[in-house]
Design a protein that fits this description.
The structure holds five protein chains of five kinds. Chain A is built from 19 helices and two strands. By secondary structure, chain A is mainly alpha-helical. Chain A has a domain of 193 residues. Chain B is an all-alpha fold. Chain B folds into two domains: 96 residues, Up-down Bundle (Four Helix Bundle (Hemerythrin (Met), subunit A)); 33 residues. Helix content of chain B is 75%, strand content 0%. Chain B is built from seven helices and no strands. The longest helix of chain B is centred in the middle third of the chain and has 25 residues. Classes of the chains: A mainly alpha, B mainly alpha, C mainly alpha, D mainly alpha, E mainly alpha. At the D-E interface, helix 25 and helix 26 of D face helix 6, helix 7, helix 8 and helix 10 of E.
Chain lengths: 470, 172, 99, 642, 465
Amino acid sequence: MLLILLLVIPLVTGLASFAFRKTPAVKTWALIGALATLVVAALSFCGIKESIPEANYNWLPSLGANFSLQGSVMALLMTLLTAIVFPLVFIAQWNKDIEQPSRFYGLMLLAQSGLMGVFLANDLLLFYFFWELALIPVYFLAGQWGGKDRIKTSFKFFVYTFLGSLLMLAGLIYLYIQTPNGSFDYNTILATGASLPIASQGTLFILFFIAFGIKMPIFPLHSWQASAYEQTLTPVTIVLSALMVKMGLFGVMKWLYPVFPHVDEQFYNIIMILALIGILYGSLLAIVQTDIKRLVAYSSLAHVGLMIMGIFAQTENATNGVITQMFNHGITITGLWLVVDMIERRYQTRDLASLGGLAGAAPKMTIALVVITFSSIALPLTNGFVGEFLLFLGIFESTNPNHITFMVLAGLGIILGAIYMLNMVQKVAYGEQKSLVIADMSLNEKISIYIILIVIVVLGVYPNLLLQVL
Amino acid sequence: MNIHDIIFWILSLWAIVCAIFVVVSRNPVNSVLFLIATFFAISGHYILMNAQFLAIVNIIVYAGAIMVLFLFVIMLMNLNTDTEPQKSRLVHFAALISAGSLLLVILSAFRYANLTQVPITDAGDIGLIKVLGKTLFEHYVLPFELSSVLFLAAMVGAMVIGRKEVVEEKTK
Amino acid sequence: MPIQSYLFLSFSLFAIGVMGVLMRRNAIVIFMCIELMLNAVNLLLVAFSKLHGDAGAQVFVFFIMVVAAAEVAVGLAIIVMMFRKVNSVDINILNRLKN
Amino acid sequence: MTQLVYLIPLFPLIGFLLNGLFWKSMPKKLAGIIGSVAILASFCVALGIFFEVKSGGVPDKGIVHIFNFISVGKFSVPFAFLVDQLSAMFLLIITGIGFLIHLYSTAYMHDDAGYTKYFAYLNLFVFFMLLLVLGANYVVMFIGWEGVGLASYLLIGFWYKNKEYTNASKKAFIMNRIGDLGFLVGLMLTIYNFGTASYHEFFGQLSGGIGTMTDTGYMIGTGMTNAIAICFFIGAMGKSAQIPLYTWLPDAMAGPTPVSALIHAATMVTAGIYMIARSNALFNLAPMAQNMIAIIGLATVLLAASIAIKQNDIKKVLAYSTVSQLGYMFLALGVGAYVGSLFHVMTHAFFKALLFLGSGSVIHAMSGEQDMRKMGGLGKHMPITKFTFLIGCLAIAGLPGFSGFFSKDEILAAAYAKNPMYYYFALLGALMTAYYMFRAYFYTFSGSFRGTEAQKHHLHESPAAMTIPLIILAVLSVIGGYVGLPEVIGEHLNVGHLLNEYLSPVVQNFDVHHLSHSTEWTLMAVATALIVIMIIIAKAVTKKEQFKEATGLAKVLENKWYIDEVYDFLIVKPMAWIAKILNNVIELKGIDAGVNGVGQLVQWGSTRLKNLQSGQVGSYLFAMVIGIIIIFAIGIFGLFYA
Amino acid sequence: MKPLIATAVFAILMMFAALTVKEKKSLTNFAAILMLGLIGLNIWELADYNHLLANAQAAPDLFAKMLRVDNYALWFNVLMTACSFLYILLTGRSIEKVGVHVGEYYSLHFFILCGVFLLSTYNNLLILFLGIEILSIPQYILAGSDKRNLKSSEAALKYFLMGAFSTGILLMGIVLLYGAMGTFDIHGFNFYATGTLSVMGIVGVMFMLVALGFKVSAAPMHFWTPDVYDGSPTPFTAFMATIVKVSVFFAFMRLFMEGFANIDPYWKVLLLGVITGLTLLIGNITAVYQQSVKRMLAYSSIAQAGFMMFVVIGSNAMAMKGMIVYAVAYTIATLGIFGVLLKLKDYTYDGFNGLAKKHPFLALVATICLMSLAGIPLTAGFFAKWFVIAAALEQAYTFWLVVFALVMAAVSLFYYFKVIMAMYFKQGDPELVSEITTLDKVVMTVIICAIIVFGIAPDMLLSWI
């Protein structure tokens, strides 16, 4: 029941949001909806230790597709992340005017509903449904609000991801055809996938992977990312980078890797290498970016690269690391975007060269920036550490013949990460104050940022809070 | 080679030559006339195959009614001169090549078909009116009715298309 | 007569019809060439009718003629309509609709 | 008492939180008091623990479990502390010297706007440093390890408005990260091969020696031990500023001077030595790594000392001196003289903290001036500083009777025993040390004042909060050495090597040959004589007080062998270049353009294909017929040949 | 049988009404009422047939096996009639503006529906031929019915010439098949039993393929489509592009499923694959270039035909479902977008600029319809694509073709979303030609609701088969 609520609350509140005319009302309504979702998500997450919640309803009997949801640990963790991020974004957004707020909040909540569905669906067709459902509102969000190139970039993003989804659709239907009596049920899919000839598994694997790979994104399918992040409004950027990226990783963990267990090991190897290239490439590119949003975008490419490597390392530690890191990265990147947004709004520019002196003008914001930055470069006692640690360990323990090389080269990412992140901090926070009227965080911004900081530190100091449920 | 064959070849030659003239003659009226000639040759073939009824219908309906309609329209439009602007030589050549290749491609399929040993059976009376009439009204009654629907549609259409629009005239 | 003689003849007429369609610019002549194609079909149909000893094929020829007549009615009406507007039956004059 | 060990890091943490969270409303005085008292409290607890450890009354092998840090699947790392002789000793050094430096800072930083912030950072540093030495496994050590890097970053960049300073802090953090990667890889190798990160379990498995099986079923071989040891050593290189990762440390002098004293002289930089000494069981099984450590240590000694000779910034001299002294410690580790190394850590902590604080006192008096060329004759104005600084110099130069003498002698002797060549080079380094330290001393305190009038007017002795730590440290610099009397002296006084005895349950020298008494006496005498000569030379050189444009080798030395430039040329520039290429060529012109190119291809194809739709029905028919022909051809081909 | 007769009768009734009723609006209302009656008759027929089946009687042998009636075809007829009803409600106002012969236009629509019913139930190539002609000839006329507009005449001429040409090809195909099989009954075809004549049958199949491909505007026989759709009066374009087209597809699929069931699958996929691939490529790629939304929709209909070709390739049980779902999804979505288009003055993309702000309802309808055409989940278009792809994949050798098709579906976003972008993200002041009436709103609401409902539960469409 809780699972259904997780889907329905954002859906209903989202649809209802469209009807509002007055800005404050819709803001409040959307926040109430998001908070209600958070409560439900938290409740269902708390219950995880007792049993895995499931829900099953008939949907399309003729196709063998059911409306079935399953709240596995990973799924509930991701829904929790989704449920946390949205209210935070809404709170941080509270005192900012936005055109056509009812549409904005409505679409945001619809996107949330779609994301919840992606994480909870236990039926392949349903999964695909939500996969797209999450995309559409985000496309509209990205196209309607943002920078001046937003129409182009959002469309590029949309076509890119949609192409991936369509390729997945081809694989999905092929897989469905192979099921003994036409079913999308997770277990049936698992059994069918495993029973296919190796070559077919390989082809399907590639098709699915392209879809997930674009969403993550993995090098060289990432080219939508930087421009999309750059042009979108920050709340949308957050949805894109903190949550939609996780859709790809989640998809691989639930729907790709277990479904085609017998594909050529070479695929894993290639993906690991691509992810590795992504780490180094993203990091190096982040170093030379002059636009702060692009910098964070490329850093995201690097971070996700490590998670991808973790998935394909095929070890228990790596898998746990990925799940942990998915959550933690979501929190951290949300914080980072929120701070970046505050900086952008105050300086009216994203050009790193024109920023500076934040530490003198807005010390609280600077503290937030520094803490989040260090979380992002995985300093121990921040939430970023434990996930990366488990990932490195998992990659190291992998049976892949190149496991040590992989781990060491991926480790270069933490060095490069320090370089670009500290560069950013230096350019933003340090130096002489560039502008005199830089206000520190307002109350609503404080609330959301402090919550993030608390999560960062608590999960950094006591990561077992999260790990014990895995 | 019996007389049957000889007539076949003469009729065939006749039909093909006239058909070519339909295509190449510059004056549309000539084309019409050659087409009628072709139809006659084809009717000849029908008779050769003992399908007298069709042969007659072909001459009456096709060569008679339909072609006259054509002729009528041509005359009406005063097109009975060879004023038609010619397509370039290249287009002619291309048309020839295309049609030739089409023929070639189809015939190449039959190269492997091994059809040579199939003669036309000498079944006598299927082309007679009596047989045809029975077939038509027993088995083909639905198409028969439908053809009337088709005619109705064509009639309505020809009227819609042909009639001058009153409104249009008024506005002008 | 072996059936392929009729096949060859019919295909030849058909191909000549196609050639005419491609070669000419006069809409009426093109239409006539199409009629030629139909006749080639009729001829073959009758030949097959003999081959299979089936009167249905000849009835079919009858229907083809009927349809051809209907088409001629509509077709000529359209051509006349066009002639009224542009004073020509040259198909190349009409090229307003294009990309 | 051992169970209360969590209090030791807790106090600084509380201090950090109080100062950090209430930085805005905190009264200045209170901030200093909170910061200092927190450390003092830790020191008291540490003292209690020290005595308990010394008396051997530590329960549970000294492991204090705090909570489960990571526990997932089969992998588990507790957040646990290990109380033993080694950690107790470091606790005392850290909290003891830490307290003195906090005390000193209350005066030194008094006029700074970021006073509260400063103490918060300093407490944070102490907290992480304590975690580093207290951890019962490598993961906790790693937490502290990175944490001190963070604190160091924050403190070096304390004056954030200066770009140079923030660059230095960044450089420090990044170079440390390079080392950290080595540490991390070593840690991974350990966990992979031994299935644990805990010291006890790890060393327990190692105790079987080469050829035995680990718990996870791998055979312990020299390849494995060398690999792990070298990785750990790379970590130590970064933290303890060894070649090639030492360049951050001189730059780190950008931070406030007490910070340099605490972090970049006394405590954090010795973390590498602590780590290797802690892992002695591993390094004993890794001869190749040991040789590497010795050679790199020695090379660092010489390189840093040679650079220090021509430095004019008083803090830079001390910084290179620190690098050089750290080199000695690694040399000692490399030759297996773990106790000697730790001994030197301790004495170095005393006298180098003293020297830094002394220099801080000077700088304080000079209103921030650090260039020795602008100083001179300061001894008249600030006698306490002068006197304590002199003691520090004597100690670091290694004159008999001072602490540096004993510790350095132990290292030199061990080096000689291992390989006389080590000894010669190490001695050369010691001579240079004596030269540059006294050069600095004479430049600063004797002769006539070379600064501006304003500065001269301002010259004064520092307040008590600054001089008291100086005096305490001066005393320690003198007496600190007596805990490790060399055998040749100790046997006459019937006193053993106290430190050796104390540490023996945890750390024992490995494979260190004993020299004959005569050899040892000879070595000491030669060294002492040469050092005295060097001091005289230094006096003579500094008399002239001329600062010419340096040429030749001197210029190279002044420019630090151009190492920074070489790094810049070999690493920083190429990386930036590659990144630029990647950004401008691969990303924008390659991948991005490729993706956009697909879109453009569609558009292009669209403009091509639209020409098919010419508007002429004749061409449509043509195209259609040709299409039909092709389809037929394919169909027939497919029928017969496929 | 009842609806078939009714179409002819209603057509004649409309003709008489045209003579007596001068009020154009009444003619539209009358046509709508007749269409409603036709829906009723269709449902009656369906119920009757089920009654027969329930009483365990064999399917009636209609007209010497000229027709073959089953649930599936009847349900299809019901749906198509319902769509035609929506079509009349949506476009009636615009039809009235095309010309003076409003009654005749409706009459021709009923004739076309007669052809539709024939094509859905034919069992004999002669009926197929007649059905196609009954379907086509009124279309030639409707294309040219706007006589004030030279483009309309041009469209009619082009359509007619090419259509007549394709008739010749169709007949050649029928004849060759007859020559090979000795029968016109599609159930009598057996490609293995014909021995030496089998090649002739195969060539006949190719001719049929080309001719039917022409009618459904599959490349390279698609050339008429953009010009005719563009030139014809917009409401009639909507009819041609939707109901007519899917009906021919229905016939096409039945021909391959029942008539050509036992031809070599590899050969079938090869040949159909080439056509499908080409159709998808040309339809999608060329549509990107277009400036006019109407013309873009013409190319889009080519592209959609490429997808519908999959039901022909598949020719299996899944294809039958796919046919229905695709037919409905495609038809209502296209009708919806044409409905919006008819309201606008400017058919270019710029004409849509800023529509979301000025007429959010129209923009919403257009968006949902376009999304459905693009095949985005939660719209009927998704399941349409889903079923046809599933149908194709059940057939061997089609995998890469499907992948190609889906890549092309991504290309389709370029032109579908261009409209959405214009409506939502761009500024502009679109003008309407007429007010949005309550009827329009109701019909459009029905359309978008249908799209979404079928997008969630396509089973509703399949319950009758």
